[in-house]
Amino acid sequence: MKQQFEEQFDVIVVGAGAAGLSAALSAIQEAERTGRPEPRVAVLERSTKDIRGGNTRWSGAYLRLESPTSPVPNLVEYGVESSNSYADRTYYEVLAHEVPAAFTWLLEQGVKLAQLPTIFLTASSTRFQPVGGGIQIVEPLFEVLERTSASIFYETTARNLITDVDGAIIGLNVLDSDGRSHAYGTSNVILACGGFQGDEELMTRYVGRNAYRIPPISRGGQNNRGDGLRMALEVGAGTAGQFDLFHAEPKDPRSSVAEAVVMTFPYGIIVNTSGKRFIDEGAKTVDLTYERLARQIAQEDDSIAYAVFDQKVKGIPGYEHAIGTDVEPYSADTIEELEALLSLPAGSLVQTVADFNNACLLDQEGFDSKGLDGLAAQPDSQPAKSNWARPLVDGPFFAYPQICANVFTFGGVKTDTAARVVTSDGHVIPGLYGAGEMTGLYYEAYAGSTSVMRSITFGRMAGRNAVNDTSRTTTINQNEEVHV
Questions:
Q1: CB pairs under 8 A, 24+ apart, for 106-115?
Q2: Where in the chain are the domains?
Q3: Taking the model in full, what pTM does it have?
């Protein structure tokens, strides 16, 4: 069949978060660097202009860097070990190698990075982040992009890829804000449109039980509906990453802010709607336990829990940095009153707290909020608490509700180390690239503070490689024989 295209582009980027913006800008700048005409680049953004930027806009955008342009020395080992050795070591090796150039480039675009207090009060790896959060990656990059000839299409959804009879990319079908279909010709498509956390059907298909109770953590995540994954699979892409798992965070469901987390939970207790503890809140440092807590909350009755504290927690240095929610906690002078405020079964929280308090050591001198202090408790008929076990006796007492929220999904499209989408047999799909959260990498647990870092690094790589593939950056014949 013959395909007519309304417009021609050299590169179409689907998605305008960290990965997509890095790809679009790098494609244009690479052509300039090599003395070629500025390529015709289109960027498709599903959101409206005022909330553009995908998941990145709403993220704290923590980066596992030891300086603004250097990854932490153990990045490769950390990434592989976090996945229980299922992750692609070569991918992490390339990431570590490419980060210095990618982040030197990012700083040149006007993004400012700093080592700021994190939400983790216990000792953890060095982290940098943009001053002001992920929006301070999105807007500076958009500002540079808008000074180029790139076409930015808002409220536009990519529908399906168009290939020729040999399987090479030659175009893309899209829907505009009015639901009208358009066909754009292109020799290169870069998929950077996130995971599938915003699609309830895909979440249920892959994640399973109670998936409908797990919302995206941010407004940006609501637009991540698996379009890139679906389109890529339709043209033969392979997959990578653990499809039944996702980056989870415990979140205050009352709050509308992104990442409304309460990362002080190791210093209190967590109870379910039966008023009972169900997890060791102090098993490890908070950066290694919050995902497990969030996922366990999703499996509890009603998929909600409560983080309960007394006043001692407010004396921990940096306490305020670990509270992301903007809604005040439930507060009461007694545990009995707090129990009633939370609508827990009569006597349940009172008994749980009493049994927990009785199991705490009398000697509290060893308490150390910054590291594993061995201050343990083993209450009867409750999980042990391995560290930071202090009795809840100093009122007023307070509690934050907690649900499991989905930051991004782990399963995605398979790419090689040049950011090219490949089949399950490792064959490159000509003209198709992928970067960011829609590409699969993670297994077992999230390798913290690497998502935005890899999005920028491999997004930049995808844009540069798309332009440098001179065999693909040619105008497509309007009457090209295609396969849809």
A1: 106/22, 106/137, 106/456, 107/68, 107/69, 109/25, 109/140, 109/141, 109/144, 110/140, 110/143, 110/144, 111/136, 111/137, 111/140, 111/141, 112/136, 113/63, 113/65, 113/68
A2: 7-245+410-483, 249-405
A3: 0.93
Among 3.50.50.60, 3.30.365.10, 2.40.160.20, 3.20.20.210, what is the CATH number of 7-245+410-483?
3.50.50.60
What backbone phi and psi angles, to 5 degrees, belong to 98?
-90, -15
**Residue range 249-405, CATH number:** 3.90.700.10
Interval 308-356: pLDDT, tens: 999 999 999 999 999 999 999 999 999 999 999 999 999 999 999 999 9
Give the whole-angstrom CA distance, residue 404 versus residue 372.
25
pLDDT at 116: 85
Q: Per-10-residue mean pLDDT for the chain, 484 residues long?
A: 87 98 98 95 97 95 96 97 97 98 98 91 84 96 98 98 96 96 97 97 95 93 95 98 97 92 97 98 95 96 97 95 96 98 98 98 92 96 97 98 97 98 97 98 96 98 91 46 46
